[in-house]
């Protein structure tokens, strides 16, 4: 029984909210586009909700917008399939034929700005691939608020208009986003300039290395023959020095043996001369004496 009472009470609140929206939409011209309903006629409000409940005193803009989306031509503006947002399919026709019926203007940008004040967000429907763009829905504009849903008017009283502090915070946030974007752009420009300068330095370094390599090759071509000639001359000098050392060491030991042999030969001749002299040959004696003296000289 208690559950049935709660269910009937909830249904009654929804019915009352719906009727209040219809009432505010019909009386919108007398209260203004941005004002609030000041009184509630007992003849038009269900008997179960005597007086004007606080939660049903909705801003006229929200009441009119809800009523407008419910009654608009589906080819111009309608709820989404899930009912959690609404879509304006033809912005130009919506601005010229629908807005003037509920508001004292036909400016779609002003309407969107009012939605923004109440916390509505534009939903982007950009596809991942450009080839997936549907030209039929490319011009659609969607607006979303978690408390603005189809067949749930009882949620509208939870939508609040942004205060000056909120608006200031939003403006500060927008300024901060612009500053962040500016810093990103500056960082990107610095990175591109750094990459450009690095490429220039790399090109110049490679050019200089190539030039130095060519100069080195030329220098090697000129110096290599000189080094070869110097190497051959050094080898020849070393060979001559080795030959001189070898020749000098072999000749010195042979000098005393030759003199010793000559001395023996001289002594032998002298003995023969003396023997012949004793035999009576005077001319040979003088010659042999001179030869002996010459051979005896060390």
Describe the 3D structure.
Helices cover 64% and strands 5% of the residues. It has helices spanning 2-26, 28-31, 60-71, 91-102, 108-117, 164-251, 254-278, 282-296, and strands at 77-79, 85-88, 121-123, 141-144. It has a four-stranded antiparallel β-sheet, with helices on one face. The longest helix is centred in the C-terminal third of the chain and has 88 residues, at 164-251. The radius of gyration is 62 Å and the shape is rod-shaped. It starts with a helix and ends with a helix.
Quick tags:
four-stranded antiparallel sheet; 298 residues; rod-shaped; disordered C terminus; mainly alpha; single chain
| Terminal CA distance | 161 Å
Element-level helix/strand string: HHHEEHHEEHHH
Helix count, DSSP H or I runs of 4 or more residues: 8
Structural class: mainly alpha
Instruction: Report the count of strand segments.
Output: 4
- Radius of gyration over all CA atoms, rounded: 62 Å
Topology:
Layout: H1 2-26, H2 28-31, H3 60-71, E1 77-79, E2 85-88, H4 91-102, H5 108-117, E3 121-123, E4 141-144, H6 164-251, H7 254-278, H8 282-296
Antiparallel strand pairs: 1-2, 2-4, 3-4
Helix pairs in contact: 1-3, 7-8
Provide a short characterization of the protein structure.
The protein has 298 residues and is mostly helical. It has helices at 2-26, 28-31, 60-71, 91-102, 108-117, 164-251, 254-278, 282-296; strands at residues 77-79, 85-88, 121-123, 141-144.
């Amino acid at each position: 029984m208690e559950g049935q009472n709660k269910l009937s009470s909830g249904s009654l609140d929804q019915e009352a909210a719906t009727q209040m929206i219809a009432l505010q939409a019909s009386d919108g011209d007398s209260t203004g586009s941005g004002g609030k309903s000041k009184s509630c006629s007992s003849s038009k409000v269900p008997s179960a909700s005597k007086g004007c409940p606080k939660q049903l005193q909705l801003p006229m803009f929200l009441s009119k917008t809800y009523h407008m989306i419910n009654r608009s031509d589906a080819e111009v503006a309608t709820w989404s399939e899930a009912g959690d947002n609404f879509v304006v399919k033809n912005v130009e026709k919506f601005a010229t034929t629908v807005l003037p019926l509920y508001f004292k203007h036909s400016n779609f940008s002003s309407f969107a700005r009012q939605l923004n004040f109440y916390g509505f967000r534009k939903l982007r429907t950009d596809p991942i691939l450009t080839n997936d763009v549907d030209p039929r829905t490319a011009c659609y504009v969607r607006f979303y608020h978690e408390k603005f849903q189809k067949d749930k008017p009882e949620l509208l009283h939870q939508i609040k208009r942004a205060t000056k502090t909120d608006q200031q915070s939003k403006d500060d946030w927008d300024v901060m986003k612009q500053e962040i974007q500016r810093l990103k752009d500056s960082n990107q420009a610095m990175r591109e300039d750094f990459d450009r300068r690095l490429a220039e330095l790399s090109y110049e370094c490679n050019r200089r290395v190539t030039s130095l390599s060519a100069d080195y090759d030329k220098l090697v071509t000129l110096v290599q023959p000189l080094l070869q000639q110097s190497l051959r001359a050094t080898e020849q000098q070393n060979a001559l020095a080795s030959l001189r050392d070898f020749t000098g060491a072999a000749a010195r030991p042979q000098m005393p043996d030759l003199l010793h042999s000559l001395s023996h030969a001289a002594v032998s001749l002298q003995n023969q001369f003396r023997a012949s002299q004793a035999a009576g040959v005077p001319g040979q004696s003088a010659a042999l004496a001179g030869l002996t003296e010459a051979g005896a000289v060390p």
